[in-house]
Amino acid sequence: MSATQLHVWRDPLPADIAPLLPDFLEALPGPTHIQLSGRDASRCRVVVTLLHGNEPSGLTAVHALLRQGLEPAVDIHIFIVNVDAAREQPMFSYRMLPGDRDLNRSFKAPFDSDPQSRLAKVLLDCWQTLAPEALIDIHNTSGLGPSFGVVTSIEPEHEALISLFTHRMVMTDLVLGSVMDLSGRFCPVVTIECGGARSDESDRTALIGLTQYVSLAQVLDLAPNNDVIMDYFHHPLRLELLPGASVDFGNEALLVRGVTLLPDLEQLNFNHVEPDTRLGYITGELTDVLQARTSAGENRLQHFFHVDDGCLLARVRMKFFMVTNNPEIARTDCLLYFVPA
Ligand SMILES: [Zn+2]
Question: What keywords are annotated for this sequence in UniProt (predicted)?
Answer without folding.
Answer: Hydrolase, Metal-binding, Zinc
